[in-house]
Backbone:
């Protein structure tokens, strides 16, 4: 189950999108999401779909790989769809028992489903083509202006990087603890929701303790290597914009303009 | 609950560290520059912390390090031995200002470790490798982790790359520079950690039980890397361990028990006192133990045999002597 989620994973291959500066990709993803919720008509969605399809094609990530990740959040999509479908007031189309489907509900549900699908696909393209490190580096630089407002930008980026580094280690540890508890007769498989949740306690407690211990060790190791926050720190891999990054920004501007035009023109629904 | 206490303890150490800054002794300014030939010099170091019971009430103080005087010269390979709880790791953490002495003083390259302004110089001069390889690797890629130290020191980008490549080559991990640390073996991870310290161009490396969590082949890798650093680069190495086989090549050994240095000298001097080592619950290398037993049975073998080859040649000599006596 956990393995099926491709959101947040990095797909290693060579492509133009992979080589772009992480800042470009973050800005583009954000702009894409914002425009997705601003645009309200079919043409806009068609443009967004075309834009997304082109990027996926350029990224050399197999579309099946992206959509396999969608399966895991299919339930979430369905729930949003059904809620919108049944709970929106308006002109009744079909009505049975306590449920009524309205015209507005159908349109809203459809729109939300399309938006969510695009949103998740768009953001997973970002993580699939950007290493976690580039991502945190990019975020740190982009959020740098917030430092003036006393937002601990460097610290947040560092925490994200460390969290990402420790995910596989803690996963392995969970597995180890689970096996150790199973060897002592623990049962994680049978029983209802509550029983299953309760059986997780003997896993979580040792996991938390070891996570704290690791955090303590890591803090000491970082201090021993002269870590003292972001002040006076240099970068091994500084972010530098190249020509293709400017081209990418240009493409993004074209996309935004098209979206605005579509929003104004308001064809169809 | 006990764990919470531990966290509280470490917090208290930090607080005490801050308090100590104010009350740090300034009685002997001569010490500041006089011992520059000494890499590390300690004067009657004592370290105490407050122990808590299950509910977090203090139940008394524990003296982890109890009056240690130690002088380590430049370029030496030093081993500090002792069983668990002998205070060896606590002492090691004093060498790069991660802990501060409750009493006494520690000087690294003539700098007092309680001097707030010198703390980063000290940590750059005396690098530290810890026990658990997973808990000291910060980067997601080997080369990024090695670059972490130089990044913190504010080294320019080009030089960081030079240092990273050079130190990865020193420990023989250059071909893994793009790999994720999660895919490396324990010994390889420890070598990456060592490279991360070398990249800071230290004069001294303190290794706090670097092999405790490794398999025998990983242990050999790490010890080989440590010896190469000492022989080729001339870096002072302080190896803290409880594996006796790892220390036979050291220049000097300190044996610790209950926070005190109870034995010191060359490996031969220390290992010739097998009974005393066993009293201290330390495992003497098998060859040394065998040679000692044979000697006690009346065979004429020199004390303090360290390697198999030495024992073989000692026994061969003995046979020659007997043969010539017979004739």
Residues:
């Amino acid at each position: 189950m956990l393995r099926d989620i491709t959101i947040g994973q990095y797909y290693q291959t060579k492509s133009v999108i992979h080589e772009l500066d992480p800042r470009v990709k973050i800005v583009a993803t954000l702009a894409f999401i914002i425009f997705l919720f601003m645009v309200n008509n079919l043409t806009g969605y068609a443009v967004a779909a075309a834009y997304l399809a082109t990027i996926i094609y350029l990224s050399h990530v197999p579309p099946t790989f992206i959509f396999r990740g969608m399966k895991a959040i299919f339930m979430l999509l369905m729930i949003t769809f059904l809620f919108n479908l049944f709970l929106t007031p308006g002109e009744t189309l079909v009505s049975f028992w306590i449920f009524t489907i309205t015209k507005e509900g159908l349109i809203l549900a459809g729109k939300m489903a399309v938006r969510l699908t695009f949103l998740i696909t768009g953001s997973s393209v970002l993580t699939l083509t950007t290493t976690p490190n580039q991502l945190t580096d990019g975020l740190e630089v982009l959020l740098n202006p917030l430092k003036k407002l006393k937002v601990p930008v460097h610290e947040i980026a560092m925490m994200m990087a460390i969290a990402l580094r420790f995910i596989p280690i803690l996963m392995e540890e969970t597995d180890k603890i689970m096996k150790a508890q199973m060897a002592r007769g623990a049962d994680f498989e049978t029983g209802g929701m509550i029983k299953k949740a309760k059986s997780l306690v003997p896993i979580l407690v040792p996991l938390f303790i070891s996570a704290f211990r690791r955090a303590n060790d890591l803090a000491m190791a970082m201090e021993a290597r002269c870590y003292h926050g972001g002040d006076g720190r240099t970068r091994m891999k500084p972010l530098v914009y190249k020509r293709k990054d400017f081209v990418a920004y240009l493409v993004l501007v074209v996309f935004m303009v098209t979206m605005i035009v579509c929003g104004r023109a308001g064809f169809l629904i | 609950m006990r764990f919470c206490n531990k966290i509280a303890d470490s917090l208290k150490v930090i607080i005490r560290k801050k308090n100590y800054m104010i009350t740090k002794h300034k009685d002997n300014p001569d010490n500041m520059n006089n011992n520059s030939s000494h890499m590390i010099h300690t004067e009657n170091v004592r370290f105490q912390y407050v122990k808590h019971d299950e509910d977090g009430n203090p139940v008394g103080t524990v003296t982890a390090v109890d009056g240690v005087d130690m002088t380590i010269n430049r370029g030496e390979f030093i081993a500090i031995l002792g069983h668990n709880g002998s205070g060896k790791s606590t002492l090691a953490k004093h060498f790069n200002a991660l802990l501060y002495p409750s009493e006494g003083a520690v000087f690294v390259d003539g700098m007092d470790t309680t001097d707030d302004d010198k703390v980063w110089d000290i940590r750059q001069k005396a690098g530290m490798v810890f026990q658990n390889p997973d808990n000291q690797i910060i980067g997601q890629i080997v080369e990024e982790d090695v670059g972490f130290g130089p990044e913190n020191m504010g080294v320019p980008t080009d030089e960081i790359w030079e240092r990273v490549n050079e130190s990865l080559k020193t420990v023989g991990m250059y071909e893994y520079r793009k790999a994720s640390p999660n895919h490396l073996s324990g010994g390889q991870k420890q070598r990456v950690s060592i490279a991360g310290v070398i990249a800071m161009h230290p004069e001294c490396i303190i290794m706090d039980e670097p092999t405790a969590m490794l398999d025998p082949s990983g242990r050999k890798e790490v010890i080989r890397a440590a010896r190469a650093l000492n022989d080729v680069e001339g870096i002072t190495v302080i190896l803290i361990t409880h594996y006796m086989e790892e220390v036979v090549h050291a220049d000097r050994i300190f044996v610790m028990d209950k926070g005190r240095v109870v034995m010191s000298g060359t490996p031969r001097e220390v290992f010739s006192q097998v009974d005393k080592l066993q009293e201290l619950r330390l495992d003497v290398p098998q060859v040394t133990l065998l040679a000692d037993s044979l000697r006690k049975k009346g065979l004429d073998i020199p004390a303090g045999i360290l390697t198999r080859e030495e024992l073989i040649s000692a026994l061969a000599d003995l046979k020659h002597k007997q043969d010539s006596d017979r004739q």
Q: What stands out?
A: Chain A has a mean pLDDT of 84. The interface with chain B takes residues 131-133, 161-162, 164-165, 168-169, 209, 212, 214, 216-218, 220-228, 232-238 of chain A (CB under 8 Å). Residues 2-130+239-265 of chain A form one domain. The first helix of chain A runs from residue 16 to 19.
